[in-house]
Amino acid sequence: MEEGARSCLLQSRSSLEQDIRASYLMDHMISDGVLTGDEEDRIRSKPTRREQAAALLELLLRKDNQAYISFYNALVRESYGDLASLLHNSLPLVSPEAEKSFSDGGTRYVQAVLSEGGVPQRPVVFVSRPALMNRVREKLYRLQKEPGWVTVFGMAGSGKSVLAAEAVRDHALITECFPGGVHWLSIGQLDRSDLLVRIQSLCFRLEQQSQEKDPSSSLHRPPGSLEEAKERLRFLMLRRYPRSLLILDDIWDSSVLKAFDIQCRVLLTTRDRSLAECVSGPKSEVAVESGLEEGQALEILALYVNRKPQRLPEQARSIVRECKGSPLVVSLIGALLREFPDRWAYYLHTLQQKKFKRIRKSSSYDYDALDQAMAASIQVLSKEHRELYIDLTVLEKDVKVPAKVLSVLWDLEPEEVEDVLQDFVNKSLLFRDCHHRPYLYYLHDLHGCWEMLVLLAPSRDTNNQKLNPINHPNNTIRACLSLCEFELV
């Protein structure tokens, strides 16, 4: 077991011994294959609940990373959320091969359920993010007894879809919480007619599966309107697929989400944290950090180029640092390096110069080029907010500014500025440093670039000539920063 995980167990030992019932947890750990029947018998032979807990922890300290993760998952499943949180930050990493066997539960049942529901398979190059995955599973377990919503949100290319698919790749979660199955629907940016087609397709799939299980059930004609489609889906989910999970991948619009407000269990991925405010029922959320840990990102690059992480050239760490571990960037560059293994320095320079159009390659993500992924989030803003946001793209790297600076730049009341910034934060276009008062706001490096400004802001001068970004009037932000420098001290 990793030293950090062992240390965390020792530090939390007293609280765990006092509160857990080992008998509740051991069934899960036996199912995961990290505890034997003989070990369970030895623990159960202890005369008191606390002594059983102490014996389980003593045994756990002699086991490996998988045992630690299994114990954490068992705490989550048995509603020991407060105790699970004590162990959360020290969840160890395991190899992709071990994680694959472990999270799949070693059963064909899981594969069959997810395949029938259209859940995507793992990417060919995959590295586990156990801390995030378990956080999503913890929220999903809350849907065991009643319908509700779990929102997985984060910026473009942060790995939300892969994470959502991985979270449900778990035998215990499916059998205990979603025996009606897991049904995946890719959404994206749709108009009403396209949305109707997607729901019609989902209804047909559900009815077809239902008929295979019960030949007496019949197929219906496709619903002819969104309202009819919503009611058909409501009937199917409540009557034929109770306690099933509907996964809505890549939601952009609240009006689209309302079409699925049918009192069922929903996991949605989105760039906009605030979307679920428009629907009814219990809600919880998981923020997906924009970047992988350095070791995880290096492992992805190593898998692409078929090397050990420690054998990667020195530019590899610089690439990871430059993109702050973005899964999308690492995936795109890794795929390029597989074909051009001598271009480490070139792709590092491309990142440093923010020439994102050159980072273009088919990958497991929805976008084949980095500039497309970044621009998509900004293009859905209203015209007024887009113009304000473009002002921010000329911020220097790692500069954090208070709302007061932007109030000067935009010539808006401080309250208006805070509302606009909140919208940007909700849409994963801006980050907020909450450790300072007043709050400080900053861009991810992948958003703050000249190329983005050229792509999204073809501003023109009085002679209707396109402005070069270097001379763009939005550069007045630098003057504002100088005037308000005292605010940043």
Question: Topology, pairings included?
Answer:
Layout: H1 3-19, H2 22-31, H3 37-44, H4 49-60, H5 65-77, H6 81-88, H7 96-103, H8 108-116, H9 130-141, E1 148-153, H10 160-167, H11 171-177, E2 182-188, H12 192-213, H13 226-240, E3 245-251, H14 254-258, E4 265-270, E5 283-287, H15 294-305, H16 315-322, H17 327-339, H18 344-352, H19 370-379, H20 383-392, E6 401-402, H21 403-410, H22 414-426, E7 431-433, E8 440-442, H23 450-456, H24 476-483
Parallel strand pairs: 1-4, 1-5, 2-3, 3-4
Antiparallel strand pairs: 6-8, 7-8
Your description of this structure?
- With about 500 residues, the chain is of the alpha/beta class.
- About 50% of the residues lie in helices and about 10% in strands.
- The chain contains 24 helices and 8 strands.
- A 5-stranded parallel sheet has the order 2-3-4-1-5, with helices on both faces.
- Strand 7 and strand 8 (about 440) form a beta hairpin.
- The protein is globular and about 70 Å long.
- It starts with a helix and ends in a 6-residue tail after the last helix.
- The model is unreliable at about 95-105, about 450-475 and about 480-489 (pLDDT under 50).
| Cross-sheet strand order for the largest sheet | 2-3-4-1-5
Strand content: 5-15%
Please tell me what the overall shape is.
Answer: globular
- Tally of helical runs: 24
Radius of gyration from CA coordinates: 25 Å
Helix content: 40-55%
How many strands? 8
Runs with pLDDT <50, length 5+?
94-106, 449-475, 481-489
How many strands, which pairing sense, and closed or not: the largest β-sheet? 5 strands, parallel
**What structural class is derived from the secondary structure elements?**
alpha/beta
For the termini, the CA-CA separation is: 43 Å
Mean pLDDT: 79
GO molecular function, one term: ADP binding
Organism: Oncorhynchus mykiss
Pfam families: CARD (PF00619), NB-ARC (PF00931), WHD_APAF1 (PF21296)
Domain CARD: 1-90
